[in-house]
Amino acid sequence: MSTLLPRIGRRRAVQGALAGFVVLGLLLWWLLPLGEKPPSGTITFSTGTRAGVYQKYGELLRAELRKDMPDLDVRLTTSAGSQENVERVASGKADFTIAAADAVETYKLAGNPGAEELRGVTRLYDDYVQLVVPNGSDIQSVADLRGKRVAIGLPNSGVRLIATRLLKAVGIDPETDITPRADGIDTGPGRLGDELDAFFWSGGVPTDGLRKIAETSAFRFVPIGDDLVTKLHESGGATRYYRTTNMPESAYPTVQNGAVVPTMAVSNLLVTRADVDPRLTEWLTRTVLDSRDGIGAHVHSAQLVDLRTAIYTDPLELHEGARRYYRSVKP
Predict the structure, then answer these.
(1) Which residues pair with 134 in a beta bridge?
(2) Which helix (H) or strand (E) holds 265?
(3) Are strands 118-134 and 261-273 parallel, antiparallel or unpaired?
(4) Which residues pair with 196 in a beta bridge?
(5) Backbone angles phi, psi at 73, to 5 degrees
């Protein structure tokens, strides 16, 4: 009897371990679609400027993709922003990117090469237009920028596209009525006051490039009212993607002092091409949605990625791989 009990105990331990392995195997099979081996290979993801949200989101997404697809090499490339990102994917220089809906539509309306091959993966989060001036500035509106030194964003950036449209909407020629500067979020904040009277930025909030200086620098936001957004809409085209909103008081609390800022927003899309492998795109779409909270802990705007709105990638139709994923999780 004394030798039987240990044997029974060992047998039960072995049985318990085997059962645990079976459960783990079933769990992995459930988590990995149809027990498939994860996609492998190399993809290029075009992000944005180094201090911007696109770059931070891309870095965090790459880390999540490495967990789900360990044999997939994700190469990040910085860019000027949305306009350059769209061109890179359309031309095959990149496989995936983030771009604002107005930049995508502008590229399509121009009939640029590869526009018909662009596809949407998911709607991500909104960019907020942020017009920043020193605290003691006399600039109270976009119209007050006449004659000023204004950073309108890098060439081929989404910021440049929006800033140019806003200036023209108030009768300012961005080439002759201001001193235009090509600063982005990586250099603009540091030059404000000494070399710049104002700078435009369009990005998720808070943006690291602004959040970091908000603790030590005195600046404020110039409101962009709904009357100005209405003027933009009247010009037609891609301006239909702009909507009036308020930048929440929690975006930069040390600067806003509990007040919201009237402005406008535009949706960001995760973009690819029609010829990109559907299975890879399906896996990537799943990772984007599943990693929302993890990425959102570091990029606040990413918390707004939502399955219910992700499929609305207008002006692009969904990529087949993304469509497969959304069908698989449809209630």
Answers:
(1) 219
(2) strand 261-273
(3) antiparallel
(4) 192
(5) -90, 110
Instruction: Tell me how far apart the alpha carbons of residues 216 and 206 are, in angstroms, rounded to a whole number.
Output: 16
Give the whole-angstrom CA distance, residue 252 versus residue 245. 16
pLDDT (tens digit per residue) in 286-325:
999 999 999 998 888 888 888 999 999 999 999 999 999 9
Q: What is the pTM of this model?
A: 0.87
Nearest residue to 206 (alpha-carbon basis) of 194, 190, 189, 191: 189
- Residue pair 81/158 in contact (Cβ under 8 Å)? The answer is yes
Residue 76: which of 48, 39, 114 has the closest Cα? 48
The predicted-structure confidence for 169-214, as pLDDT tens digits, reads as follows: 999 999 999 999 999 999 999 999 999 999 999 999 999 889 888 8
65 Cβ partners below 8 Å, 6+ apart?
Answer: 72, 74, 284, 287
Query: What is the Cα–Cα distance from 74 to 316, expressed in whole angstroms?
Result: 23
Mark residue 47 as left, alpha or beta (left: phi above 0; alpha: psi -120 to 50; beta: remaining): alpha
CA distances from 12 to 2, 6, 9, 16, 183 (A): 16, 10, 5, 6, 68
Spatial distance between the Cα atoms of 50 and 57, rounded to a whole number of angstroms? 11
The predicted-structure confidence for 63-75, as pLDDT tens digits, reads as follows: 999 999 999 999 9
Question: In degrees to the nearest 10, what's the CA dihedral of 300, 306, 311, 314?
Answer: -40
Give the span between the Cα atoms of 92 and 281, in whole angstroms.
16
Of 161, 165, 160, 167, nearest to 188 by C-alpha is: 160
